[in-house]
# Entry
Amino acid sequence: MPAGIFRVCLVVIAAIVNHPLLFPKENATVPEYAEDIIQKMKVHEENLRLEQLRLEQEIAGQEAALKALEKATETEEQNVKEPLPWDLWSAMSMVIFLLIELWRQDYQDGNWQESASEEDDMAVLGKAFKGVTLPDKAALANFYERCILGVTGDMARKRELVEGFADDLLEALRSVCNRDADMEVEESIGVGSMYENWRVHKPLVCDLIVPFRPPEPYCFRSQTWCSRESVRPDKQGYGTIKVCRADEDAAGCICGKTKLGEDMLCLLHSQTNQTKPSGEMEDLLCFKNTQYLDANQVMKWFQIAITKSWNKISHKYEFDLSFNLLDSPGALKIKFRSGKSIAFNLTPVVQCEDSDAYFISHFPRSGLMADPASSTDWFVTFAVYERRFIHSISKKLPANACHLSCLQIISFLHGKQCSLTGPSSLTNYHLKTVMLHLLQARPYQDWASENLEARLQDMLKFLEKSLQEKKLCHFFIGNRKVPEVLNFPVAFQKAEPLNLFRPFVLHRDAYRKTVDTFHEMLRNTSALINEYTVHIPSVGHTNMLHKEPL
# Structure
């Protein structure tokens, strides 16, 4: 640009110097052809003006080019600073498009039949309940009297017998164990359908959980899935239990994680107050080389302890005691000399902090629930809260409410259908969960005994909708409407809801089998009820429906 300005100045100076009229000579005379010269000078002046304009345009063009170059440089620097340039996004989009196209072709070639079948199932499922006609009130009353009350009439007597024997057995267990080294067991707690008064299937099995704790100076510190920032879906509902010293903080002292050296001592822990070596931690039923409680170790310990305690008190009883199931630590059976038997479950559990939620060592598995990936993963059960909720809300319902009758009838029908078509992944716990949701959703007066048929329809519709959506939320986990009287832990209320039907998304065969069984149960409802109804009862017998189950 300076060179262009210099050229313009040079042309202007030359024009001024060479102009004849600017420096006239003294006493000079104008020649005759002065007019021609003046005309030529004007032409020359016009040419100079045009040359000046051309040079100014050239300078302006150079300045514009310089500005464009600076702007391009700034744009390149800005593009370099961006983490993901557009060409990378374009490449990623192309890869995603190709993957979607390959999946679509594979879907059209091989999977369309399976999806079509699933859509057909959903279409039938949506219409299945519409064709169901429940028997009238008299038939339901007769059915309930013969098939439900006839089975559950002696539940109270069996509960009393089992509880008395379990207390004696656990007292003997405490006496045979070493209090300085072995786990300490507490009083048993009755849970499940036998203690919620709705069990209908024989044999009538009592479920008792037995809390235990480590010997002094040790304690259990638990961590549930909802206390972690992120957890895999298959880990939901589980937690871990760490065996620690009672005087050790939750994070553990740094002396256990750092080499202090031979000449350095921890001011908090003396040499006599250090964590036991790994071999002795295994004596505390921990997984090898860890401080985490091992469910398999607990199972072995509990079975051995039960055997020792029975050997101590067996002379007092006129029956035999044996383990009923090999894969369950406390599945026991009492065998009388007459040939009759009573089955019950004693399952060791660990209390979750200061709540009535418990980590259970072995949980009854269904077709949906897979075994935990590690024996240090413990399932969290809310059975105590479930029993407490049912008993609490029963006091607010009308006299002789039909909520348990509905659950018993559906449980009975589903059990009979499974005996005909094979086992299903739908369990009695799922049925109870449906009842709990409806108990919270519907007004109390809707559960009067005369509304039995309507509430049966509600439960079947709710279950049908849950199967269709493959979604049945756990009643307590993630439920912020749990009554305050239960003192349910806030951490579980604020947790993400737990979908009990999530495995159906992964296991299509189990889902299809469950849906088929549900369809068959709906179609056979009237036939099953009529099969167990010999005659239509009289008016006096219809009142049996309003009898509160024991």
About this structure: The beta strands are 184-185, 189-191, 206-213, 218-224, 238-245, 319-323, 331-336, 341-351, 358-360, 378-381. The chain has a mean pLDDT of 79.
